[in-house]
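HUMAN: Now follow token order:
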Amino acid sequence: MSEARPNAICEPIDTPSRLPLQSGRVPSAGPAEAAIDRAPPGLLRRLPSSGVAMAGLSIVLFWAILAVAAPFLPLQPPNAQDFAALASPYPSARHWLGTDVLGRDLLSRLVWGARTVLFVAPIAVVTAYLAGCTMGLLSGYYGAFVDTAISRASDVILSFPVIVLYVILIANIGPSALNIVVAVVLASAPGVGRIVRGLVLELKEQDFIAAARLRRESDLYILLVELLPNCRGPLITDFCLRLGYTTIMIGTLGFLGLGLPPPDPDWGGMVKQGTTMLTVYPHMALFPCFAIVSLILGFNLLADGTRELSMSD
């Protein structure tokens, strides 16, 4: 008689729904499963877990709230002169941070100056990112002549020292908020494009891009849906840093007399004006310097925090 064979233990077979999903859409997985697998916890939702990021965000929000609420705060008009305070421009009950050399309230001018910085800097950086991401995506994805043309044009712009490039642009097109935005875009877009190009060159060789091509997805879909979202970690960090750099540039241009035309409040212009009386009334220059430093510190802390969170993805 043949010997009875022991019953085999049935092992569960992994189905596509049990296997880890790769980036991109997998035809064998349901849409709900693919959406869940492709949606890691958002960076903004994890932001409170980073003390550094929250410290930076608190500083930025402080100035942002002051800037938005400036018309409703009980402040002196930023360009109103108090001739009685010229004899003693130190901080007082009427002027909490004192006045400048023309008798204008420093606190009011700092708050209204924050509106300028927090309006111009984000618009300039966002516009630079739109241009830079477009350049980087096209250059990295298509390569060949497109990559050569964009890279050589970027090399020409990046060969100039940044401050020299800003001064040349503003000196030729004139100081105004719009022209500062134009100068920031021209100076920053090539740098953003370099970052995006490097990321795309690495990502386009991944399996999820090959899967998208097999599905006959359009190039526009691959660029905007598959590639660009996977570049978000380094780009968010760089975006925060560029906000700080742009704040420095706006202050520098104002100090050099190439910022907003007077009498508009300009933190850099206030520092320059305060240096003429630095040995007698140091508060005229110190308070605007503190405002610039604090806002840049906020952006840098926010960048450090987002970098740590993006690296933990």
The domain at 57-82+95-311 is CATH 1.10.3720.10 (MetI-like fold). The chain has twelve helices and no strands.
